[in-house]
């Protein structure tokens, strides 16, 4: 697995108390001399190097499941789309496949949605995703069951590249049902990325990783498209799509939803789509009647501010 000393140092810094993403963003640019890190962390060489050795041993356990690790300060660490608060910025990424797909020069469109779409939702999503791919877009999603899988599969079927952003480590892909799909993504020139090299410490940690993962779908995409999703409710069937759409809005990333009022107004799996349209008139509505025009608006890059 490829990684720099800088990347190891960044991961090591993160293990010190109260040294989260916001602190890292404020104090580090990458490739700092070790003496500077010791001073900033108020630590000594022995403690720092002991932590770093443990981390290096852990990441090497990933073996061939990961091609590399990149961190802030590395030449190939990707730019972020939109205007992102420091606490949301990733500082290190493990990857398998073509890391250059995260470049701001690449047109990346995220397609997300429910875990249990019906046949009509699947058909519509495949049609819209296929139209997006005509614009030489790379499809981004989260490898979840349902709409995420449909997005990745459609990209593969159309000969397009696709990026899967994982809530798990690269050697323990979730959901397990999509391990084969993940392998196909890489074989087809796509990319898997994760922020993690160790298993979650608790169930709460695991749940939080899904939520944290959702922000990356916005950060590495020029637009985020919601296929279908329940609105927040007490049934627990609303999915992470809501988090990704909220983050896209806060970052200034373009958003789109699939929705036709005459067809979908009484279908619960389109409740979030409808809610988003009602709350934000700038959201692009896509249906069969305006698909080509609306998709063109979705994939046309705007003058977003890119962060490094």
TrEMBL record:
Q: Which GO terms describe its biological process?
A: DNA-mediated transformation
What sections of the protein cross the membrane?
Answer: none
SUPFAM superfamilies membership: MCP/YpsA-like
Q: Which InterPro entries match?
A: DprA, DrpA_SLOG
Domain named Smf/DprA SLOG is located at: 70-227
Family, per entry? Belongs to the DprA/Smf family.
Protein name per its UniProtKB record: SMF family protein
């Amino acid at each position: 697995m490829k990684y720099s000393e800088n990347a190891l140092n960044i991961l090591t810094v993160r293990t010190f108390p109260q040294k989260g993403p916001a602190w890292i963003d404020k104090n580090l640019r990458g490739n700092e001399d070790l003496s500077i890190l010791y001073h900033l962390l108020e630590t000594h060489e022995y403690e720092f190097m002991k932590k770093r050795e443990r981390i290096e041993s852990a990441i090497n356990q990933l073996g061939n499941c990961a091609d590399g690790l990149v961190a802030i300060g590395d030449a190939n660490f990707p730019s972020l789309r939109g205007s992102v608060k420091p606490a949301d910025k990733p500082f290190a990424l493990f990857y398998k496949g073509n890391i250059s797909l995260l470049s701001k020069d690449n047109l990346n469109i995220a397609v997300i949605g429910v875990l249990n779409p019906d046949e009509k939702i699947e058909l519509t999503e495949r049609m819209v995703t296929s139209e997006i791919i005509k614009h030489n877009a790379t499809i981004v999603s989260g490898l979840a069951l349902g709409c995420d899988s449909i997005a990745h599969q459609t990209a593969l079927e159309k000969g397009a590249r696709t990026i899967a952003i994982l809530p798990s480590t690269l050697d323990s892909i979730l959901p397990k049902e999509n391990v084969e799909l993940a392998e196909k993504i890489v074989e087809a020139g796509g990319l898997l990325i994760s922020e993690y090299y160790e298993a979650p410490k608790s169930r709460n940690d695991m749940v939080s990783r899904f939520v944290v993962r959702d922000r990356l779908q916005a950060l590495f995409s020029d637009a985020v498209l919601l296929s279908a999703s329940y609105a927040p409710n007490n049934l627990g069937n609303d999915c992470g799509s809501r988090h990704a759409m909220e983050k896209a809005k806060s970052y200034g990333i373009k958003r789109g939803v699939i929705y036709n009022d005459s067809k979908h107004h009484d279908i619960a799996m389109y409740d979030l789509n409808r809610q988003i349209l009602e709350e934000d008139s700038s959201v692009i509505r896509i249906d069969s009647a305006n698909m080509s025009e609306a998709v063109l608006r979705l994939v046309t890059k705007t003058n977003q501010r890119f962060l490094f």
